[in-house]
From TrEMBL:
Molecular function, one GO term: growth factor activity
Coiled-coil parts of chain: none
Protein name from the UniProt record: Uncharacterized protein
Provenance organism: Oncorhynchus kisutch
Domain of life: Eukaryota
GO annotation, biological process: positive regulation of cell population proliferation; positive regulation of MAPK cascade
A Pfam family assignment: IL11
GO cellular component entries: cytoplasm
Length: 150
């Protein structure tokens, strides 16, 4: 199995788990019924960490394409902007609840990739992340209403 397929597989597994978790939480109304500020802060902190992690991956992918003189697709730029906006919104929500921003560990990225590897990575990941951004937006809107009631 080539290196880029391992990266894609790993990211898609993470995305699938996060997407499934968000769907279940929304369907079961767990996020709406958060009973304490601690649970709210935990949810916001985890969402913030996930958003920043995905943003770092997309930024790395954009840099890799630029360094190889490959064009960056509008979808990728849209996802990068969406992740930035969502992480800013989540950061604001954390500050409103007087919760410190969680520490983010910066992942290590491969340094020697072929143009084909980068092209394959940058095709699948932005499409999947777009759906994650849409669900994250819904979660943040639900959490915002919870923050405003505190």
């Amino acid at each position: 199995m080539s290196f880029h397929f391992m990266i894609v597989s790993h990211l898609l597994l993470i995305l699938h788990k996060k997407y499934r978790s968000l769907c279940l939480n929304l369907r079961n109304s767990h996020l709406v019924a958060l009973s304490s500020l601690s649970q709210l802060n935990d949810s916001l902190s985890q969402l913030y960490k996930d958003l920043i992690s995905f943003k770092l991956h997309v930024d790395w992918m954009i840099d890799a394409r630029v360094n190889m003189s490959l064009p960056v697709s509008p979808k990728t730029l849209e996802v990068a902007k969406g992740l930035h906006n969502l992480s800013s919104f989540c950061s604001t929500a954390l500050q409103q609840t007087a919760c410190p921003l969680p520490q983010i560990s910066i992942p290590s990225f491969p340094t020697q990739l072929k143009a084909w590897d980068v092209a394959l990575l940058s095709y699948e990941i932005p499409e999947r992340l777009r759906f994650y951004c849409q669900w994250s937006t819904r979660v943040l809107l639900l959490l915002r209403s919870k923050v405003q009631r505190l």
